[in-house]
Write a structure and sequence with these properties.
The chain has helices at 2-23, 42-54, 101-106, 112-121, 127-133, 162-171, 188-198, 206-221; strands at 60-63, 72-77, 82-87, 97-98, 140-145, 151-155, 202-204. By secondary structure, it is an alpha+beta fold.
Length: 222
């Protein structure tokens, strides 16, 4: 009887482990790569596929900055010998950045490299608190969001001088996460010049500046 009871307990534990390995904590059902689930928008399906695929990979990860979570990383693929730069600012689509072609062209606001990086970071101690608190760098930045319609955004750093914050409030739409309205594209250069003179660290990323330049050229041609 004791052996039977022990066998039943072992079988129960084994079944529990099997169920856990299939679904796992905070994991949904595995997405099909050929058919979108009913009721799921195509863009959410594609984001989910990248999240699913990215977190299954055995990429290499190197932190290029000094912050443990909100930093720049190098993600390398040992099979293809390729590597891409990933910037993490949060968990939502469009907030982060990757230098890979898929991120630049899909307009989904994520890719397998970003999802791989987030998956690795979320396993680190203090990740939940850090992501709940949000990205709070000392420097300010101008970056491009890729989630659907591409838009330029300004994020004020914790060391941002009051004069710069005041100027930013008059140029960027704070109700839309610091978005630069199209009608204010011509004022951006003056704002950046003022920030430079203030001595405050301000990072304007190449893709955002290229986007602004392209919009200006299109406006001139029109």
């Amino acid at each position: 009887m004791e052996n039977i009871a022990q066998t039943e307990r072992t079988t129960t534990k084994s079944n529990h482990r099997d169920r856990s390995s299939t679904t796992g904590p905070n994991k949904g059902p595995k997405l099909s790569r050929t058919h979108a689930p009913a009721g799921l928008a195509p863009e959410e399906w594609q984001r989910g596929l990248r999240r699913q695929f990215g977190r299954e990979q055995a990429f290499g990860l190197e932190n290029l900055g000094g912050e443990p979570f909100f930093s720049e990383f190098r993600v390398s693929n040992p099979v293809s010998k390729s590597s891409y730069r990933v910037a993490i600012r949060g968990v939502g689509p469009g907030r982060n950045f990757c230098s890979c072609p898929d991120y630049a062209t899909s307009d989904l606001g994520t890719c397998k490299h970003i999802e791989f990086t987030l998956g690795r970071l979320e396993k680190k101690r203090g990740a939940k608190t850090a992501f709940r608190r949000g990205c709070r760098p000392a420097f300010s930045e101008l970056y491009l969001r890729y989630d659907g319609k591409r838009t330029v955004h300004f994020r004020a750093g914790t060391d941002c001088p009051p004069a710069v914050s005041e100027a930013a409030a008059g140029l960027f739409n704070t109700a839309h996460d610091g978005m630069l309205p199209d009608e204010c594209l011509g004022e951006l250069e003056h704002f950046m010049s003022a920030v430079s003179k203030s001595g405050h660290e301000f990072r304007a990323y190449d893709d955002a500046l290229d986007f602004v330049a392209g919009r200006r050229d299109a406006a001139r041609r029109a």
